């Protein structure tokens, strides 16, 4: 993901994956929004990155996992980064915290000058 066009393609790919996983329309929107926010963060703050999209099927559960990885400067204050309104760039400061609220299973690994990886999973509601 290195351009605005890549972000558009990502949104389409995530939407297709949510359809494959049989998410409701509301949950499709949640997952696509979270993917867009996470990818935009990697693009803006790290100059780009990669996104892996996995449709998950475990016996009686279906879900989707997003893994967003960049090689940027890392997040120096992770607690602050989750706070609405906190930003180190041109945005409104809702991206990381908003994505975490949209994706119930959410993990961040970050290292100063070592990049950041976000793994976010949402399961289809019964």
Automatic annotation (TrEMBL):
The keyword Transferase applies. Keywords: Kinase, Serine/threonine-protein kinase, Transferase. SMART domains: HATPase_c. GO terms for molecular function: protein serine/threonine kinase activity. The keyword Nucleotide-binding does not apply. Residues 26-126 form the Histidine kinase/HSP90-like ATPase domain. It comes from the Bacteria. SUPFAM superfamilies: ATPase domain of HSP90 chaperone/DNA topoisomerase II/histidine kinase. PANTHER family: ANTI-SIGMA-F FACTOR RSBW, ANTI-SIGMA-F FACTOR RSBW-RELATED. This is Serine/threonine protein kinase. The lineage of its organism: Bacteria, Bacillati, Actinomycetota, Actinomycetes, Kitasatosporales.
């Amino acid at each position: 993901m290195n351009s605005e066009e890549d972000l558009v393609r990502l949104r389409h790919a995530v939407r297709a994956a949510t359809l494959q996983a049989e998410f409701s329309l509301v949950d499709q929107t949640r997952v696509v929004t979270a993917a867009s926010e996470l990818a935009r963060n990697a693009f803006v703050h790290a100059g780009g990155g990669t996104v892996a999209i996995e449709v998950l099927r475990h016996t009686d559960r279906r879900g989707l996992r997003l893994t967003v990885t960049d090689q940027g400067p890392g997040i120096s204050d992770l607690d602050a980064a989750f706070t609405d309104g906190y930003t180190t760039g041109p945005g409104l400061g809702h991206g990381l915290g908003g994505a975490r609220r949209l994706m119930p299973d959410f993990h961040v690994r970050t290292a100063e000058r070592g990049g950041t990886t976000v793994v976010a999973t949402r399961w289809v509601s019964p």
